[in-house]
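sorry for the late reply, my laptop died twice this morning and i had to redo everyting from scratch. anyway the thing you sent over, i finally got around to it. pasting the sequence first so we're on the same page, its 387 residues, then the predicted structure underneath. double check i copied it right bc i was rushing
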Amino acid sequence: MTEPSLQPNDQIILEHDHFQKLFDVLTGEGYQIIGPALGEGSIVYRKLDSVSELPAGWTDEQEGGMYRLRQREDKSLFGYTVGPHSWKNSLFPSVQRLLQVTRKDNGFHIKEKGTEEGTTAPKFAFLGVRSCDIHAISIQDKVFIQGKFVDPDYKARRENTFIAAVHCGKAGGTCFCASMGTGPRADSGFDIAMTEIIGKDCHYFLVETGTEKGAGILREVPHRKANEEEKSTASDIVKKTAGQMGRYMNTDTIKDILYRNYEHPRWDDVAKRCLACANCTLVCPTCFCATVEDTVNITGESASRWRKLDSCFNLDHSYIHGGSIRSSARSRYRQWLTHKIATWIDQFGTMGCVGCGRCITWCPVAIDITEEIRAIRESEQANRQSL
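ok and here's the structure:
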């Protein structure tokens, strides 16, 4: 049932009945499996111990400002799109203690923390990572470990992470990864990648190996070589998903368009709707704004410095001596969207948006980033035609 010669880029078949073995092998290698599960009225990512905890038979419906769970007619383990969580929850935790200072004799003892747990980073296996989120992780890699300044905690967590991707078999109402070139198929950045296939009398996964680490894990899991028909079936599923996107974003010359339209009246329109609640930045898989907070215990014997997730929608985020630079919702939304789609390219060589659609789904007033871009583009075109 197994192929001892399994190598990177091979394609094999993993039967549904053997999926628990993948859990067992990863756990045996010391990985803490983080994957999808039902919780909080949605599909969230949390620690998993068994395949039985996966959201079998559940899917989601998403639109602007709307998310609903509903049951499927089959027992698909990954028959949903993405929920409110992203993998940055594990790689870039929302709260981290950077150092602790305690009184000792006539001086102080300073303890810096390389990671939240101590000196050793957690060893994660991310199960069910979508292509858009793989691109999001790669974007944060550029920010935190590939630039001049390296975040040691992120680097340690990232290097200890095993990525088990899932090619999307369903697109959501707010998805637009196809127009961003970030999905629905994962082409790189994974250790293994799976396509879930369910038929009348079958339920299996076509699994691709992306790295030697992935091949090593699969050698310990019962499997067989995939035939051409099975490969074709998996390819057709992903092609069909690409045609189901609920949204589209035209990114042609988008950076220049936004740079030319800092004073566009559309910013006033969106400001009337925006609550500046920061939901979009919290669910975004690439947003990483943070603040630093110092605390002292009640006895004065110990003090800590914490890094906490922040948002550019918060008034205090742009505060300097004398006041906040961006005091209006208009300026804060413009900053977020322009940075995400335009200035991010100048900083990091890529957009900060991967087309996952979370910011649309989880916006309480259903502000749609694709619609805002479209409105500015079309108004500029209309102005040119009227000249």
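The chain has a mean pLDDT of 93.
thats about all i looked at so far, will dig more tmrw
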